[in-house]
């Protein structure tokens, strides 16, 4: 640890030698890093951070990425990171844009070309790439193709976050097909009835973005139930409903109907008498 600290100080003193930092980072990537302080709110340190990403972090061909082969019980497969290999791309972010759903893809291997077809391994659907763009903040640049190591966005692709796309020659996924079961549920509803449409739109979008976030309707209580991986997980989505869709929502525990079941035979003997004037009432039930 002392040797690593000395090495860190030496490399930090001569940080201009980016090739040295890159080789050190590859060798000690689990125990050595360079710190760059930044304040996003005031746009301080963002440029040095991005420069550091370019100068010090390894390129895609220097990192081992593994996919899961669905034809071999999710056996791990090492990806070469070469544009000459079969296409393997991961949808890691969804965004509602002016022209519909904008899907961000990270290309791990192969090439994506505008107008060509690719396969969604998670759904089995064959999809055409109608428009391919490179993002610059909130600006878009139309491109004809993108290679391994790049992050691009596509329009008109119906998918969920975490879906993997290939050219059809392989059935690789970058994430496991097994989604963990939710551990917590909440009942949620819009405070204003006029917000129902926006409320439903928000929940449908969040389900696509996050496979671990689930929405259901309790047929007995009529409540909308959201389920996720914990209290914080669900609180974040409730806050996003308010912030992004301007819908105030209230949450609570799901209602559970109380049921009774007959478990064993019982002896009973009941006598009913009622006399209030005139003809009285009399009855006896036993068993």
UniProtKB/TrEMBL annotation:
<keyword id="KW-0648">Protein biosynthesis</keyword>
<feature type="domain" description="Translation elongation factor EFTu-like">
    <location>
        <begin position="100"/>
        <end position="166"/>
    </location>
</feature>
<dbReference type="Pfam" id="PF14492">
    <property type="entry name" value="EFG_III"/>
</dbReference>
<dbReference type="InterPro" id="IPR041095">
    <property type="entry name" value="EFG_II"/>
</dbReference>
<dbReference type="InterPro" id="IPR009022">
    <property type="entry name" value="EFG_III"/>
</dbReference>
<dbReference type="InterPro" id="IPR005517">
    <property type="entry name" value="Transl_elong_EFG/EF2_IV"/>
</dbReference>
<dbReference type="Pfam" id="PF03144">
    <property type="entry name" value="GTP_EFTU_D2"/>
</dbReference>
<keyword id="KW-0251">Elongation factor</keyword>
<keyword id="KW-0342">GTP-binding</keyword>
<protein>
    <submittedName>
        <fullName>Uncharacterized protein</fullName>
    </submittedName>
</protein>
<dbReference type="InterPro" id="IPR035647">
    <property type="entry name" value="EFG_III/V"/>
</dbReference>
<feature type="domain" description="Elongation Factor G">
    <location>
        <begin position="179"/>
        <end position="252"/>
    </location>
</feature>
<dbReference type="GO" id="GO:0003924">
    <property type="term" value="F:GTPase activity"/>
</dbReference>
<dbReference type="InterPro" id="IPR014721">
    <property type="entry name" value="Ribsml_uS5_D2-typ_fold_subgr"/>
</dbReference>
<keyword id="KW-0732">Signal</keyword>
<keyword id="KW-0547">Nucleotide-binding</keyword>
<dbReference type="InterPro" id="IPR004161">
    <property type="entry name" value="EFTu-like_2"/>
</dbReference>
<dbReference type="GO" id="GO:0005739">
    <property type="term" value="C:mitochondrion"/>
</dbReference>
<dbReference type="GO" id="GO:0070125">
    <property type="term" value="P:mitochondrial translational elongation"/>
</dbReference>
<dbReference type="GO" id="GO:0005525">
    <property type="term" value="F:GTP binding"/>
</dbReference>
<dbReference type="InterPro" id="IPR009000">
    <property type="entry name" value="Transl_B-barrel_sf"/>
</dbReference>
<feature type="signal peptide">
    <location>
        <begin position="1"/>
        <end position="20"/>
    </location>
</feature>
<dbReference type="GO" id="GO:0003746">
    <property type="term" value="F:translation elongation factor activity"/>
</dbReference>
<comment type="similarity">
    <text>Belongs to the TRAFAC class translation factor GTPase superfamily. Classic translation factor GTPase family. EF-G/EF-2 subfamily.</text>
</comment>
<feature type="domain" description="Translation elongation factor EFG/EF2">
    <location>
        <begin position="254"/>
        <end position="286"/>
    </location>
</feature>
<dbReference type="InterPro" id="IPR020568">
    <property type="entry name" value="Ribosomal_Su5_D2-typ_SF"/>
</dbReference>
<dbReference type="Pfam" id="PF03764">
    <property type="entry name" value="EFG_IV"/>
</dbReference>
């Amino acid at each position: 640890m002392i040797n690593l600290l000395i090495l860190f100080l030496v490399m930090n003193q001569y940080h201009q030698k980016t090739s040295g930092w890159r080789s050190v980072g590859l060798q000690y990537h689990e125990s050595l890093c360079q710190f760059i302080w930044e304040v996003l709110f005031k746009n301080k340190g963002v440029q040095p951070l991005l420069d550091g990403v370019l100068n010090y972090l390894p390129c895609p061909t220097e990192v081992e990425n593994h996919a899961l082969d669905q034809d071999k019980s999710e056996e791990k497969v090492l990806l070469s990171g070469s544009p000459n290999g079969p296409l393997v791309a991961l949808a890691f972010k969804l965004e509602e844009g002016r022209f519909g759903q904008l899907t961000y893809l990270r290309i791990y291997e192969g090439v994506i070309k505008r107008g060509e077809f690719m396969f969604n391994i998670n759904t089995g659907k064959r999809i055409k790439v109608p428009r391919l763009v490179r993002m610059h903040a909130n600006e878009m640049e139309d491109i004809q193709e993108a290679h391994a190591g790049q992050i691009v966005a596509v329009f008109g692709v119906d998918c969920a976050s975490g879906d993997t796309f290939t050219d059809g020659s392989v059935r690789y996924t970058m994430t496991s097909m097994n989604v963990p079961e939710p551990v917590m549920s909440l009942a949620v509803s819009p405070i204003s009835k006029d917000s129902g449409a926006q409320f439903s739109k928000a929940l449908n979008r969040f389900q696509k973005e996050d496979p671990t976030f689930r929405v259901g309707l309790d047929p007995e209580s009529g409540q909308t139930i959201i389920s996720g991986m914990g209290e914080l997980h669900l609180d974040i989505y409730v806050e996003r409903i308010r912030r992004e869709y301007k819908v105030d929502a209230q949450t609570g525990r799901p209602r559970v109907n109380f049921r009774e079941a007959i478990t064993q035979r019982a002896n009973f003997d009941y006598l009913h008498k009622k006399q209030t004037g005139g003809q009285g009432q009399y009855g006896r039930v036993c068993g």
